[in-house]
Every structure is written in structure tokens, then in C-alpha cells.
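Collaborator request, handled under Task 6.
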Amino acid sequence: MRTRLAIKFHGLLEHYFPERRVFLKSDTDTRFIRLRPETQLIAFSGAALLVGWSIIATAILLMDSIGAGNFREQAKRDQATYQVRLNDLSAQRDQRAAEALAAQERFNAALDQISVMQSELLESETRRHELETGLEVVQATLRATMTDREAARTALAAVQEGVGDPDAAALLASRDPGVPVDFLADALARTAAERDQVVADAQQALEHADELALEIALMQENNDQIFRQLEEAMTVSVEPLDKMFKAAGMAPERILNQVRRGYSGQGGPLTPLSFSSRGEELSPDFLRANRILEQMDELNLYRIAAERAPFALPVKQAFRFTSDYGFRRDPKTGGRRMHKGVDFAAPAGTDLHATADGVVTYAGWQSGYGRLIKIQHDFGIETRYAHLSKIRVKVGQRVSRGDHIGDMGASGRVTGVHLHYEVRVGGKAVNPMIYIKAARDVF
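C-alpha cells returned to the collaborator:
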């Protein structure tokens, strides 16, 4: 049975792969190599596997390249979006701060005006009391005078009827108190008119005070809305930065305190508000304004700290990741070794940029690294850029994030053109992707 199957299989192979002979001729001899069907099948299978493997490997590389390109484009779009968002929030923050200061000035002016009106109202009330007291005195005097006048008239009539002396009557008539009574009546009328005017002025002052109170209430409500919007804007701006530093393993309080010690000068628009020089307790609006200014100061400290930590990519043009941080197979020896950075592959001469503000501490050739740049940043962080084709900075030079510091190359121990990028904290290598991924949702 096996023999028949072998014969049939051999016949099938001879049908598709007939036996061939390859002749090798020399000057003195001619020989040939017999290619049996089985040999041809093995060779054909090996060639087919090689071609298939080449197609699959090419497809994987193409997909990886396309995916890396899409990731870079998405990262650029996200970075641009968050930059616009931060700019908008910054503009809104400045606008809200200006509106808060203007509202506070209007509020102070209204308080001063109310104080003046209250003083005038108190003066009017005091004057009204004085006029009422004077009016009562005048009325008492008037009543006494009218009584005296009636008595005098009665006495005059009695004298005229009983005595009939025209000289005495004339003398009594000359003493008639009618003239002072008319004078007092005029004075009383003027006093009453003045009192009515004072009452009208007081009523008008009360109505004005009510209008000012309503305006102050509306102003306070507007101020409260402005404060809420400013507080929300500060929260939206500060929380992503706080999460970014925590994701990078950096304690925000320690980082901010360190930055604050380096920027400890006083004065300027972020100095806390103080509207009293007599030790009086500040109002809730003043306290809220001070808290917002403190958050703005904290946001500024975060911005300064973010500029001094490597929250950026060293390559801004098209690239692909070729090796991650961690243990890997050595491309030269094939052994397992620790890779203390990440590799970015791009064409030779691609611009390389500083990932944070710092000072160049090394710029030259170092075994294994080839042309190497070391930059010392704040918080004990150092970044390294290896295998460069050209170095564009010098030792001692201060650089800022995004500055062009060198060109990508293949110097040192490499298998091709790429950048070896390291981040070291306190001299110990850490994964650079921790910082790059932490800043993905912020920058």
C-alpha cells in the first residue's frame, strides 16, 4: 500500500516537476547534477515561503509606517488643539480678571456714593428735627400772642364803650399786637414750606438709596458670576497640568515650591489684593479675588515648571519608533541587554530639538553614543541625544524648549540612522515615554 502511494506521489511530482539535469562542462570533463522531483519541490517550497515572508514583512512595515504617520499627525493635531485651548483660556482669564477689577472699582465707587448719600440723609434728618422743634416753639409763641391780642382787643372795646376817651383808644390801638402776629404767621409759613422741602429731599434720598442698593445687588450678582467663570477657568487650566506632573512621577507641590523659590520677587499684577490699611477684615469678594490670583500664580508656576521638564518630542518631523525603553536583543551581538532610552528613526540630517529649557553640559564624541549632547534641566533631570551627525550647540550654552541642537545621524555603535534619546533623573535612566505620554493631553 505504501509503495503504491509512493509511486503515485512520485508520478504526480514528475508530472509537475519532471526530473532535470544541470550539466557542468570544463575543458577536460563534463558532469551533470540530477534534480529529482522531490528536490525541485523542496526548492520551490522554500522559494515560495521566502516570497511569502517578504510580502508579509513588507505589509507589516507599511502598516507600521502608516500607523506611525497617523499617530504623529494626530499628536500634532492634539497639540495644536490644546495650544489653542490654553490660549483661549488665558485670554478669558485675563478678560475676567480685568472685568473683576473694573467691577470692584464700580462697587467701591457705589459704596462711596452711598456713604455720601447716607451722610446727607442724616444731616437732613437732623435739620428736620431742628425745624420741628423750632416750629413747635413758634406755634407756642403764636398761640400766646393770639391770646394776648384777643385780650387787648377786649380791653380796647371796653375802654371805648365805658370811657369814650379817643386819645386813650388811639393809644391802645397803637399797642394792638396784630402786626407781630402777621410777621410770625409769615415766618411760620416759610418754616412749614422749608420743612416740606426737607421731607421731600429726604424721601428722594431714600428712593435714591433704594436704587443704589438694587444696583449694588445686581453688581454683586454680576461679580459672583464673573468670579465663578474665573474659578472654573482656573480649575480647567490647572488640573491637566497637575495630572501631567503626577503622571510623570513628579510631586506637584515639591516642583511648585522649587520654582517659587527661584522666582520669589514680589510685585506686579499677581500681587494679592488689599483694600484696607487699617487692619479691617476683607470682604468675601476680596478673598475670592485673592484666591483667583493665587491660582493664576500657581498656573504661571506650572507653566514655568513645564518649560523646564522634558514634556516634548525631540523630533518634530516624520519619524517612527524603532526601539522602546527596557531589555531587548542587542542588534550587534544578539544578546539580551538593557536599552536605557528610546530610538527615533528618520532621514539623515533631520533636525533635533531640545525637549526642555536647560544648559548644555556635554557636546562631543563619546564611545558607543557617537556624537552626543547632554542637557541639564531643573529638578535633577538630564536629557541625552546620541548618534548625531552634527552638533549645533556648545558646552555651557543655555537652550530653550524647541531649539535646534543637532542633526540626526549614524555615529557611534549603530545599525542605521536614528536618534537615541535618554532621560535621566538624579543620574538614573528612566523611560522617556513617561514624560512624552504625560504631556499628550496638555500640549
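The cover message to the collaborator said: "The chain is about 60% helix and 15% strand. The two ends are 75 Å apart (CA to CA). Please let us know whether this matches your experimental observations."
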